[in-house]
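Quick one: structure tokens for this chain, please?
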Amino acid sequence: MSAILSALFVLIWSTGFIVAKGLLFHAAPQPFLVLRMLLTALLLGAIAHVRRDRWPAKARVWSHLMTGVLLNGVYLCFAYTAIWQGMPAGIMALLSSTQPVGIAAWLYFARGEKLSRAGVVGLAVAIAGVVCVLEPDLANGGTGHINAVGLAAAILAVIGMAVATTIQKSRLSSDPVSVSASLQNAGGIPIALVATVLDGDNLWDGSVALWGLLAWSVIGLSAIGVSLVVWLSRHNGPTKMSALLLAVPPLSALEAYVLFGEQLAPLQIVGFVVAIAGVFLTRISVKLPRMSLRRKKSITR
């Protein structure tokens, strides 16, 4: 059962940026994200109500909302913007998987925590791999084109995800997933609304394909996908979960090739392998800061 669910998770999770790429033909990304987050928050909130999951205290609710600002607001809005600007879906998936590298760098430079030799090597290898992936497109030698706006958006997306992940794992991991995800999607809505106003693009063709993408985003990615993340993390452990997450970018790149004709130059393929190896080494070498359960309760309740 675990193997089947693991394969299902990788398949579902790999479609995240395929959805974003598919939007290019049907809708602007920010209005889509507003509706996606709203429907997801309502769906998971209803599930939490039916299951009678315990909702957190007010202070903890605000922590979830602020995490949602980063995880669903900053991360998704900037990631979708990057793809809207021409960032290949497979490369955006790879960049998203490098958030442990960002966390490790933050722990080292901002908090002065020492990294193991394996952690330092992992950082260097991952960065080298990412450079190999980006260089051909930045030099217009690849089949895609990454402009400055798209690259900046991608970097901001990864930073938002890294910070949100640190908060999530250190302070909010004990709450039911339906409650956490509902609140965090609600937290991302204001950011997507502001982005919609600032962008000014309200493209929405109302096609069957568009509604299908929205339904898959809410039910497949946000409900089923997130539930699988939690179940697999608890049953398989963090190391195996890390390996599964790193299987996502190659599959996303393959799907983007089949569906949209996105191709990678030989150097980019090598960079994919190198970056994934570096991220995996970093993941297993760097531990995120955690708070004890006793301290957590005293702060939030």
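The chain has a mean pLDDT of 85.
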